[in-house]
Design brief:
The protein has 145 residues and is α+β, with helices and mostly antiparallel strands. The protein folds into 2 domains: 66 residues; 71 residues, no CATH class. The chain is built from 4 helices and 6 strands; from the N terminus they run βααβαβαβββ. The strands form 2 sheets. Strands 3-4-5-6 form a 4-stranded antiparallel β-sheet, covered by helices on one side. A two-stranded antiparallel ribbon has the order 1-2. A hairpin with a 4-residue loop joins β5 and β6. The longest helix is centred in the middle third of the chain and has 29 residues. The chain is rod-shaped.
Length: 145
């Protein structure tokens, strides 16, 4: 079974930048407070605050990533579509997850209601746009023979 997921390099870059900022922050705090005698408690407090902030940031990033990148097999997508409409008794030619809805909308009126994360299932004589999150068929079109 093929698995579909969207890999977000933007999230990875964002997380990498955050790590670099934390390292620089720790170094700056360490340098500043090491020159001040008796300020160890302040240093520890600042480090704990930065760690807690980092944990919350990473937790929210992971939650966003999981919410936006549901992995579903092709057979599961087809099974769900079958609960809403008839599908040809054949394997689909292609199942594609929409990543740039705006450019699709500009290409053809059929895609007017498509959103990022929808699936386009292409059969020999039929095309279906399926919204996995909303569990609904957005549009379908029989092609002329």
């Amino acid at each position: 079974m093929k698995q579909h997921k969207k890999i977000s390099s933007h999230k990875k870059q964002k997380r990498s930048r955050f790590k670099k900022v934390l390292v620089l922050l720790f170094e700056e705090i360490k340098d500043t407070l090491s020159s001040l005698p008796g300020k160890k408690i302040l240093l520890i407090s600042a480090l704990l605050l930065a760690i807690i902030g980092g944990v919350f940031y990473i937790k929210s990033s992971v939650t966003d990533y999981v919410a936006n990148n549901v992995v579903v097999s092709e057979s599961e997508i087809i099974r769900r579509i079958k609960t809403h409409t008839s599908v040809p008794n054949e394997e689909p030619i292609s199942i594609v997850r929409v990543q740039d809805a705006e450019s699709l909308r500009l290409q053809h009126a059929f895609y007017k209601d498509v959103k990022e994360g929808n699936y386009i299932v292409v059969y020999k004589d039929k095309v279906i746009i399926y919204d996995l999150r909303g569990d609904r068929v957005v549009a379908e079109k029989n092609s002329a023979k």
